[in-house]
Amino acid sequence: MRAAVLERPGERTRIEELTLDEPSAGEIRVRMLASGVCHSDLHVRDGEWQRPGPIVMGHEGAGVVEAVGPGVPESTALDVGRLVALAWTVPCGRCRSCVAGRTWECPESPSYTHRMTDGTSRLHRADGSDVFSYCAIGTMAEAQIVAADSAIPMPDATPAAVAALIGCCVATGVGAVTKTVPIASGSSVAVIGLGGVGLSAVMGAALAGAGQVVAVDRVAAKLDLARSVGATDTVLAAGDDAETLERIREATAGGPDVCAEAIGRPATVELAIAAVPAGGTALLVGMTPFGVRASFEVFPFVDGGRRIVGSNYGSAIPSVDFPRYAELYLAGRLPIDELVTDRVGLDGLEAAFDRMRRGEGVRTMIEF
Which domains does the chain have, with CATH numbers? Predict the structure, then answer.
């Protein structure tokens, strides 16, 4: 089967023919249908996040079950032919976060080894050498072996591209404003950065009943898209952050109750913190390159009772939240399909990365 392989961070990906083992105990084989190209993939591709190589890229995908390994309970409903969305983290079940029910925080997830739970790989090159699988799901491949726990059955009629997006950007963005920091009905929300996660946060804020949803970006076309998925107001970011800050404050009568940063840049993190008024919350959702720091003035932050909250994976419990987001899509309440602005095959991956670097479009979907 064909897959997009990164030899090491900072290099171009290559499309290679790999062999795939049969599923072992607790595993399934999935024939991939769709994989989103996420900014986290770009962080790895450009060497901003270190990952072991060679590694099959992708962590936002969906496909159909092709084979079920031994020991997978029938109660999982992972029947052959069933559409599944793949979760990029499988909790360890033992750490303090898992024991407390906050599985999205799990620092010991076997997914972070980029191998299967037994420490081995199911992907190999022709010479027999192993290939890693990003977050143990490596969605940019025609097929994959994944842990059954990472495969979430989706409701009938869910499009594969929608299921793929639910597996990462939708869960991250919608969950940030409905689970991590639940938006109070009638409150004001600003979202800085309108990629897949940011637009998902816009959708989530509208779904939660926010009285005002302000979308902020430097690309006018993304502002138009934000209005179509739930934004009530838009702010075109200026070249100067101080001017952008004033535009946000003017649009929200002094600052939004919640300001979500969905890019992962120090300047926009600091902008989100500065934008919230007394009692407001800066919600940090975007992921920065490793080692990056941001700063803020402490006195007004403390004096105003402001908060900074980090949100990982939208506080998602995939088995519960993924089907729920799909049902909301099918009911017409989450316009997830509007996030897809380009559709390509595996060979179009590097061009998709180029578009992402230029800030063009929202989500490129690799379709198999």
Answer: 2-168+337-367 (3.90.180.10), 182-310 (3.40.50.720)
What phi and psi, each to the nearest 5 degrees, are found at residue 239?
-65, -25
Q: Residue 74 in contact with residue 65, Cβ under 8 Å?
A: no
Residues 194 and 230: their CA atoms lie apart, in Å, by: 12
d(CA 47, CA 69): 35
pTM for this predicted structure: 0.95
Under 8 Å between Cβ of 151 and 33 = no
| 3-class SS of residue 61 | strand
Contact call for residues 197 and 173 (beta carbons, < 8 A) = yes
> Would you place residue 247 in the very low, low, confident or very high pLDDT band (cuts 50, 70, 90)?
very high
At 10, is the pLDDT very low, low, confident or very high (cuts 50, 70, 90)?
A: confident
- The three-state DSSP-derived secondary structure of 173-206 is HHHHHHHHCCCCCCCEEEEECCCHHHHHHHHHHH
Q: What DSSP string runs through 158-170?
A: --HHHHHHIIIII
Q: 283-300, pLDDT tens digit by residue?
A: 999 999 889 999 999 999
